[in-house]
Design a protein that fits this description.
Layout (H helix, E strand, L loop, with lengths): L9 E3 L6 E3 L3 E7 L4 E3 L4 E7 L2 H10 L1 H6 L5 H10 L2 H9 L1
Antiparallel strand pairs: 1-2, 3-4, 3-5
């Protein structure tokens, strides 16, 4: 994470609006040359909590599209869903 001399770099989740250290969030980037990337690249970024609730809310209310000011493909959402922990997805299926 950070050394004791450094302040944490805080970012806000586009879904729940929580302010967290950026290493605890997923980064979705609209690349300068076009397209969408996850975690690395240069361009406009949006951050999202690593939870199913935030991902579902962002998908339902189109929070990523609004924050990035472009369309976000379903494949990006699917790859974020694949990153969710197995215990989190099992809990959602049980509901």
């Amino acid at each position: 994470m950070t050394t004791p001399l450094q302040r944490p770099v805080l970012r806000r989740c586009v879904s729940c609006r929580s302010l967290l250290d950026r290493c605890l969030l997923w980064r979705v980037i609209r690349l300068a040359e076009g397209g969408i990337a996850l975690d690395q690249g240069m361009g406009r970024s949006a951050y999202l909590c690593r939870s199913r609730a935030c991902l579902e809310e962002a998908k339902r209310r189109k929070r990523l599209q609004r924050a990035l000011r472009c369309q976000v493909a379903d494949s990006i959402i699917a790859s974020l869903e694949a990153r969710l922990p197995a215990s989190d997805s099992a809990t959602a299926e049980a509901r």
